[in-house]
Amino acid sequence: MSKSPCVTLHGVLLEAEGLGVLLTGASGAGKSASALELIQRGARLVADDAPEFRLNADGKPEGCCPAPLRDFIEVQGLGLLDIRALYGAGSLRERVTLDLIIELQVRHGPVARTPYGPDYQARAVLGVAVPLLTLHLAHGYSATPWIEALARNHTLRLQGYQAQHEFLERHARALRRA
């Protein structure tokens, strides 16, 4: 990375489903536990707790891990884990372009349905708008399958496909035929 301005964000930065994903949320929201599950399913850890971001040559935020934190993740109830020692070097990535931010929010009551998909917002990172999705989970649920699905769905959106548009178009065609 270049020596452009640097910003540190709170969260866990991973490469998941081929995207650079930053998991954010309040303490206890399940960021590190979700990241550990994702790593066990093939994601690669870049940084836990304090990833640093700079703009890369393409003008996109790129994150890496400060040297003292490299390879480690802290999971509530387990303490510090050395991902390299546990899962091997293939479970780590030195840096990744930030493609998506997923904010984890735990709800202690009912979680509202979002039949047409989550609302995309944006968060400015070094002056660049990065897509932000908020994932509302009921207390005690694993966020991992939702995070994987959001990342895959985001890849489809980048390729021009949006499930909710396809769904609505199919229904409109069916209504016109009726």
Description:
With 178 residues, the chain is an alpha+beta fold. The chain has one domain: P-loop containing nucleotide triphosphate hydrolases (Rossmann fold), CATH 3.40.50.300. It contains four helices and twelve strands, in the order βββαβββββαββββαα. The strands form three sheets. A six-stranded mixed β-sheet has the order 4-2-3-10-12-11. A hairpin with a 3-residue loop joins strand 7 and strand 8.
What are its keywords?
178 residues, alpha+beta, Rossmann fold, six-stranded mixed sheet, four-stranded antiparallel sheet, 25% helix
The total beta strand count reads 12
The CATH topology comes to: Rossmann fold
* Major sheet: arrangement of strands: 4-2-3-10-12-11
Element order, helices and strands? EEEHEEEEEHEEEEHH
Shape field: globular
Ranges where pLDDT stays below 50 over 5 or more residues in a row are none
CATH superfamily: P-loop containing nucleotide triphosphate hydrolases
Structural class call reads: alpha+beta
Mean pLDDT: 92
Q: What's the Cα radius of gyration?
A: 18 Å
Count of runs of 4 or more consecutive helical residues: 4
| Total separate domains | 1
Distance between the termini: 57 Å
- Give the C-level CATH assignment: Alpha Beta
| Main pleated sheet | 6 strands, mixed
Helical fraction equals 25-40%
**Proportion of residues in β-strands:** 35-45%
CATH architecture: 3-Layer(aba) Sandwich
Helix/strand layout:
Layout: E1 7-8, E2 11-16, E3 19-25, H1 31-40, E4 44-49, E5 52-55, E6 61-64, E7 72-75, E8 79-82, H2 83-87, E9 95-97, E10 100-107, E11 121-125, E12 128-138, H3 144-158, H4 163-177
Parallel strand pairs: 3-10, 10-12
Antiparallel strand pairs: 1-5, 2-3, 2-4, 5-6, 6-9, 7-8, 11-12
